[in-house]
Amino acid sequence: MMLFREPARKKQALSAEDCIGVLKSQKRGVLCVNGDGGYPYAVPLNYRYCAEDGKLYFHGGKTGHKIDAMQRDARVSFCVTDEGTPDPENWWLTFRSVIVFGRIEWAESYEETVRISREICKSFPCSEAYIADEISRYGKATLCFVLTPEHITGKRVTER
Question: 31 with 78: CB under 8 angstroms?
């Protein structure tokens, strides 16, 4: 049995380079974890894809459903879609979606939390003063985590 499936519609599959392009260009996606009672739990999050190490970086509060679920089971999936391209003569969009399968690792120090928080801020138009203020106000209450990909797949979809 294969751990990760091949795409059912191979003609729609994105190349590895296109998948990375989507991950680099977007700011938000949906993290899916093995939630309470075995039910999937999906939560939208902002993130940063780091081309240097190929990992995805996240931050949030130190408690809650997703944290509990990831502490029980570090295996997650993360889905990202681009904004899509409209068909000029019809109602539909053609968009690209990417799913990353992997495992979560936790930031182990305050310094690493600050580094990851700064990395995430690079995706948004934040000034250094704003970033410094946010870290001074919320840094101690922030938990950062990293998704190390084990498999990345993507496809191009036309909504029609």
Answer: yes
- What are the structure tokens assigned to 93, written together? 């969009």
Alpha helices by DSSP H, the chain? 16-25, 65-72, 110-121, 128-138
CB distance 139 to 80 below 8 Å: no
User: CA 45, 50, 55, 61 torsion: positive or negative?
Assistant: negative
Beta bridge partners, 158, equal 94
Closest CA to 60 of 52, 49, 50, 68: 68
Q: Is the CB of residue 25 less than 8 Å from the CB of residue 73?
A: no
Each residue of 108-156: pLDDT tens digit?
899 999 999 988 887 888 888 988 898 999 889 999 999 999 999 999 9
The model's pTM: 0.89
* Architecture of the domain made up of 11-158: Roll (2.30)
